[in-house]
């Protein structure tokens, strides 16, 4: 069976000379054949396929700079794609087994979790150079960025914690205990809350970004693995891997208000806004 795809939906800004101001493109990693597929977000048609590094496992994009960042787990690199030309413009060595990608568009910083070396690499988006390597706890698998307060939240899967990084100093400012095997983190900018999917305890931890304290634990279905947040309606969507169910959490009450069946081995999509 093939690997699950990871995807990011990016609104790409084109120069006015090309006759249009924006376009929607979806970038999907193909771990089995070391490529990224680019799909038209309007027509769902394949635009092109881009060769990247070995075992690309995650992808994220900065729509402010039209850059796409792909973590290549098999060769410990990050591929940088120009979203206007859909070509690779840089290959950046990082730590062991890079996995998660987070971006602060205001600072033009890219954050990479290195699950194999228990670190986070900080990349300057203007130079494609690693400017800092931050030790965290065991097996950092994913992360998210709160761009308004310049903090980065890292899920340490085998330590059952979230490391909180100060983006100004690139230092750890707090370590927050959460549930068993945290695998993903999502930032809700509308209520200043951080949501953590705890795969083995079948819960979502809710962290107050102001105090770095857990203020709620929400039971969901089996093996929650991915978090996606809709800030416009203050809802948190949690993909439960075991039974292909999405739990919908109300961000105002931290209560599950709906469960939605999806396809088996469904594709996870991260929306960049």
> H/E order of the elements?
EEEEEEEEEEEEEEEEEEEEEEEEE
Q: What percent of residues adopt helix (DSSP H or I)?
A: under 10%
Count the helices. How many? 0
Rg result: 17 Å
Largest sheet: 5 strands, mixed
Overall pLDDT confidence? 89
CATH H-level superfamily title of the largest domain: YVTN repeat-like/Quinoprotein amine dehydrogenase
Unreliable spans are 11-22, 265-273
Count of the domains: 2
What is the subunit arrangement here?
A: single chain
Q: Largest beta sheet: what is the strand line-up?
A: 4-3-2-1-25
Fold-level CATH name of the largest domain: Methylamine Dehydrogenase, Chain H
How many strands appear in the DSSP assignment? 25
Shape: globular
**Which class of the largest domain in CATH terms?**
Mainly Beta
Task: Return the CATH architecture of the largest domain.
Answer: 7 Propeller
* Termini Cα gap: 32 Å
- Which strand-content bin applies to the residues? over 45%
Structural class: mainly beta
Feature tags:
273 residues, mainly beta, Methylamine Dehydrogenase, Chain H, five-stranded mixed β-sheet, four-stranded antiparallel β-sheet, 0% helix, disordered C terminus
Describe, in plain words, how this protein is organized in 3D.
- With 273 residues, this protein is an all-beta fold.
- The chain is 0% helix and 60% strand.
- The strands form six sheets. It has a five-stranded mixed sheet with strand order 4-3-2-1-25, with no helix packed on it. The protein has a four-stranded antiparallel sheet with strand order 5-6-7-8, with no helix packed on it.
- A hairpin with a 4-residue loop joins strand 11 and strand 12.
- The C terminus is likely disordered.
């Amino acid at each position: 069976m093939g690997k699950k795809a990871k995807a990011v939906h990016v609104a790409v800004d084109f120069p006015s000379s090309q006759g249009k101001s924006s376009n929607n493109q979806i970038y999907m990693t193909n771990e089995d054949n070391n490529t990224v597929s680019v799909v038209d977000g309007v027509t769902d048609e394949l635009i092109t396929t881009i060769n990247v590094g070995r075992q690309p496992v995650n992808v994220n994009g900065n729509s402010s700079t039209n850059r796409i960042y792909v973590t290549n787990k098999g060769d410990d690199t990050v591929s940088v794609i120009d979203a206007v030309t859909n070509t690779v413009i840089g290959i950046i060595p990082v730590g062991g087994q890079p996995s998660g990608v987070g971006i602060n568009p205001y600072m033009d910083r890219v954050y990479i979790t290195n699950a194999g070396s228990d670190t986070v690499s900080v990349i300057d988006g203007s130079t494609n150079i690693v400017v800092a390597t931050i030790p965290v706890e065991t097996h950092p698998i994913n992360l998210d960025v709160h761009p308004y307060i310049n903090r980065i939240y890292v899920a340490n899967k085998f330590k059952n914690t979230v490391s909180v990084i100060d983006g100004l100093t690139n230092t750890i400012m707090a370590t927050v205990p959460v549930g068993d095997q945290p695998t993903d983190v999502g930032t809700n900018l509308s209520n200043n809350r951080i949501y953590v999917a705890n795969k083995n305890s079948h819960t979502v931890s809710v962290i107050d970004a102001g105090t770095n304290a857990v203020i709620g634990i929400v039971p969901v279905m089996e093996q929650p693995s991915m978090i996606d947040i809709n800030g416009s309606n203050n809802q948190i969507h949690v993909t439960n891997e075991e039974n292909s169910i999405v739990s919908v959490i109300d961000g105002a009450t931290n209560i599950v208000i709906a469960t939605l069946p999806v396809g088996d081995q469904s594709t996870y999509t991260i929306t960049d806004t």
